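Practice problem 4.
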């Protein structure tokens, strides 16, 4: 009974909205009292891909998301390990400061960073956009990796050191496989947040860096719900495709896949 309820709730929350959007994008809009449309049409998808900057914006968005993901992994792993396995004065204060961007208005952060980025030539550039996307993503990454390292504990790493394991060997064969749940969470969350940033991208990018979110936002005011449905599906498929691709890379690169095959 519990499994059936889980399947029903999962279908209502996750599957049905996608199926409904797909239906609207192909069959158009149905008005109450009128017969259901039966002839499919790709008009909405054709109008969508006629947008001049749609292909370019997808490439820019994916590229920025990958850079943001890489920086989140580096910063999150290093900071999470220090916060989880080290004790020092002011640790609580530093951790609070690292999480502070989550509690500050986005506009305040963006305007302050925009002035700084202008001085260093990062404004109106994709690198500046990638750096500003760290503001809403890094705090989550640090928190997740801190939890991951707390789950691993210190004794396991100390034992590997006593057995002669080097730093890189310990990191690759012990830490990375055990951090896999945290890596997956950071991977998906970072990609979704980066792809959906409109305000930060518009302020720092200055209109020169056109991401998918900036192309998507004007479509929210359109009266054509079919085009909006098609755009929503495209917007949802990109992070899912990136997640699946990166998940495949993890299975190839991380040693946990080898261990799984030996069991």
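Answer key:
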């Amino acid at each position: 009974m519990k499994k059936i309820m889980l399947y029903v709730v999962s279908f209502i929350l996750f599957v049905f909205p996608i199926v409904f959007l797909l239906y609207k994008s192909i069959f158009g809009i149905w008005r109450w009292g009128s017969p259901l449309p039966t002839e499919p049409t790709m008009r909405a998808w054709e109008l969508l891909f006629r947008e001049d900057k749609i292909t370019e914006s997808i490439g820019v968005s994916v590229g920025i998301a990958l850079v943001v993901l890489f920086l989140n992994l580096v910063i999150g792993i290093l900071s999470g390990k220090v916060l989880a396995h080290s004790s020092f004065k002011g640790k609580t204060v530093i951790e609070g400061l690292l999480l502070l961007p989550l509690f500050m208005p986005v506009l305040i952060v963006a305007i302050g960073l925009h002035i700084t980025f202008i001085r260093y030539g990062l404004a109106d550039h994709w690198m500046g956009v990638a750096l500003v996307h760290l503001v809403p993503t890094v705090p989550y990454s640090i928190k997740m990796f801190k939890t991951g390292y707390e789950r691993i504990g210190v004794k396991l790493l100390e034992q590997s050191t006593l057995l002669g394991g080097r730093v890189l060997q310990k990191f690759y064969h012990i830490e990375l496989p055990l951090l896999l749940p945290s890596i997956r969470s950071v991977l998906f969350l970072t990609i979704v947040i980066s792809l959906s940033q409109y305000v930060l991208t518009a302020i720092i990018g200055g209109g020169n860096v056109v991401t998918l979110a900036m192309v998507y936002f004007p479509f929210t005011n359109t009266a054509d719900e079919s085009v909006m449905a098609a755009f929503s599906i495209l917007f949802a498929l990109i992070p899912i495709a990136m997640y699946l691709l990166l998940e495949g890379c993890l299975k190839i690169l991380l040693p946990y896949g080898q261990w799984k095959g030996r069991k």
